[in-house]
Amino acid sequence: MDISNKSLNERYKIAFMSVLIGFCWLLTFFFHIILDKEVVFTHFFYIPIILASIWWKRKALIVTSLLVSFLIITNLWKSFSISLEDFARIIIFYFVTVVIITLSEQMEKSKRTLKESEAKYRSVFNSAKEAIVLISSDGKIVSCNKGAESMFKSSEQDLLDKSLKSLMPDRYIKSIQKIFLDIKKTNINMDSSLFSDLYAIKSDGTEFPIEISIVDWKSDKKLFFTAIIRDITERKESEKVIRENEKKFRTVFNEVNDIITLIKIEPDGRAGNFIEVNDVALNKMEYSKEEFKTMSPRDIGTQDSGNKILIQKLLSDGQITFERVYRTKSGKEIPVEINSHLFELEGKKVALSVARDITERKIHETQLKESEERYRTLFQFSPDYIVLLDLDGKILEINRTLENILGMDTESLRGKFFHELPILLPENIPRFKKNIEKLLRGGKLAPYQSNVKDIDGNEHWIDIYNAVIKKEGSDFAILVIANDITLRKLAEDELKISLTEKELLLKEIHHRVKNNLMIISSLLNIQSSYIKDKEARGIFKESQNRAKSMALIHEKLYQSTDLKKIDMGDYIRTLSNNLFDTYVTNPDKIHLHLDIEDISVDINTSIPLGLIINELVTNALKHAFPNDYRGNIYISLHQDDDKIKLEVSDDGIGFPSDIDYKNANSLGMQLINNLSLQIDSELKLISDKGTSFQITFAEKHF
Fold first, then answer.
1. What are 269-285's pLDDT values in tens digits?
2. Backbone dihedral region of 654: left (phi > 0), alpha (psi from -120 to 50 degrees) or beta?
3. DSSP-derived 3-state class of residue 10
4. How far is Cα 222 from Cα 341, in angstroms, rounded to an integer?
5. Alpha-carbon gap, residue 333 to 353, rounded angstroms
């Protein structure tokens, strides 16, 4: 639509100009030809010349040339010459045309520049993220951009005619008023002023931090202000994060247990003075921060050589790690590992160095070296045969002891499989392979024995121990240690023969002791047949039973594979049944009940215990059931953890209340008490509905 209007206007201009040119031709013809007069009709020429120059710029020369041609033609028609006056007019026509064209072009250029400037201003004004508001001298907003609408959550219509202070919390009103008053008092244009640490308020009442730039300007002698308002919420958050990060950095910088220093690098490549050091550096090096800032790394190091080389490497690589020794103010030396990084600070090259105290590591390295030397000495000079294998079962190293028996060194065997060792007998190789494979699969391998032959063909017996060596948590190698037990094997064989002979001898001794005790029992039995006194005969009978109880123990030992212990359960069953057969004439009168575990007891305990059982059972059979009294005898033997409990009880007439069992005059009770003390037992009597003797003791190992 604008293009069509422009075309229409152009046609009107051409038509109007045509009319003016035609009118000028008529005037020229009328005054020059018909009236033959020189009047000021040519002044009318200036109208089309000026209009054409304004409308068409340089094309206006065409119009001027047409008008000039009319003047020349009429002059030639009349007198075949051009008067000096007309010639001057022609020059003036062209001069006026050129001047007006120049002025018109300048005006057009200024207009275009102004339009472009206006467009740019509008583009910036409307596209700026910042809020831009134009304020009149009375403090009212006369214009604002889209940024202001977005920032304050209000439309342009809502913002117009408001004052800037209405967009800010009440606490900042006085500050804003003072700013504008100061600007007005100066009565001159001020440079843009920046005001920070202010807050604005949105239409919903939300406050947010802002930064305002205010510049004043005049138009038609009226004072205006342009305020550029920036929402600095993100910057505030960033500053907060930076402060927090700075705080964290300072915390790490000062609390980390390493010496951290910052030094400047001089233009000539030398290490300059310290710029910053952390608290650990102050504490460990014993210098103040002020002292540090007058010093360079050369002043705290004991090794000055190579410093320039290190700096050059740092400059080329950007990072280096090296070891050095620091000397404190008091002269103490601290070995450190330094990690330095190069970076730029305010356009200057600086080096950040973290120095870790490696005193303990140096001590550990020394200890590790000493340990390695001890291991190497132990490995090489151990009397055992030692082989180190890789995880494929190949030989890495053997010790000197094995080299001697093989007649070969490590180098000649390295890389060969373990089962290729020449000392191994062919029949044992499958077993060795199987054991190594099991170990490599992660299985556990108990020590085992085998036989080998040395370089001279002599047979050796060995105990083989295997272990997996780990490195940094992973399997690294297999250690095989073979202990030569040839002499021990021979000694064991001889000892086995000797033990067999001694076992036979002990069995024979137990057999003979048993026979001798049985002979004593028989002699007592024979002797008792000549004694008329019933009480005396009973004493002989009891002595006979005691001999039998001891003989029974030796018989059990003779029959046992263990010559030091007997099965106490089996012994009690045999002994109690023998006593029952001896004293009980009527089996229906007394019943024997056994609750006995099979417990192995040492001979030194079993003999006293057997005599105690003999006395307790004999007393129960003799005294618990007088006349026709009927009842039961109970014998129990149980083990509870490390204690053994024996109980002999009956439901007879009970133990006499007037007798102290601990101080009784009878031989039987005296034997029971003394033998109980001998085996360190606890003897307890319970007389409630019968009699119960409880003996608790711990088995002793002699």
1. 778 888 888 888 888 88
2. left
3. helix
4. 60
5. 18
259-265 vs 271-277, strand pairing mode? antiparallel
Type of residue at 487: L
**Per-residue buried b or exposed e for 461-489, using 16+ beta carbons within 10 Å of the residue's own CB:** bbbbbbeeeeeeeeeeebebbbbbeeeeb
pLDDT, tens only, 313-342: 888 888 888 888 888 888 888 888 888 888
Tokens standing for residue 166: 């209405």
Angstrom distance (rounded) from CA 322 to CA 356: 11
Rounded-to-integer distance, Cα 98 and Cα 104, Å = 10
pTM of the model: 0.37
> Minimal CA–CA distance to 276: which of 243, 249, 315?
249
Q: Which residues contact 599 (CB under 8 A, 6 or more apart)?
A: 567, 568, 569, 637, 639, 644
The β-bridge relationship of strands 631-640 and 590-596 is parallel
Compute φ and ψ for 39, nearest 5 degrees. -115, 175
Contacts with 568 (C-beta within 8 Å, 6 or more apart), sequence order: 596, 598, 599, 600, 601, 606, 609, 637
Angle value at C-alpha 323, between 317 and 329, nearest 5 degrees? 120
Which residue, chain included where needed, has tokens 């090296």? 322
**Pair 599, 640: CB distance under 8 Å:** no
pLDDT digits (tens, 9 = 90+) for 164-175: 778 888 787 777
Angstrom distance (rounded) from CA 393 to CA 413: 12
Residue pair 196/229 in contact by the 8 Å Cβ criterion: no
Task: Please give, one letter per residue, the 3-state secondary structure of 627-644.
Answer: CCCCEEEEEEEEEECCEE
Token code pair at residue 172: 């900042």
- 578: Cα separation from own chain's centroid: 77
Helix (H) or strand (E) holding 277: strand 271-277
- At residue 306 the predicted structure's pLDDT band, cuts being 50, 70 and 90, is very low
Cβ-based neighbours of 55, under 8 Å, separated by 6 or more: 13, 17
Instruction: Tokens 């229906």: give the residue.
Output: 588
Alpha-carbon distances of 616 from 310, 356, 544, rounded to whole Å: 97, 82, 15
Query: If residue 682 lies in a helix (H) or strand (E), which one and from where to where?
Result: strand 682-686
Sequence-ordered list of residues with C-beta below 8 angstroms from that of 574, at least 6 positions apart, any chain = 552, 556
The answer to whether 334 touches 359, Cβ cutoff 8 Å, is yes
Confidence of residue 553 (pLDDT cuts 50, 70, 90): low
For the record, the structure tokens of 60 come out as: 């206006």
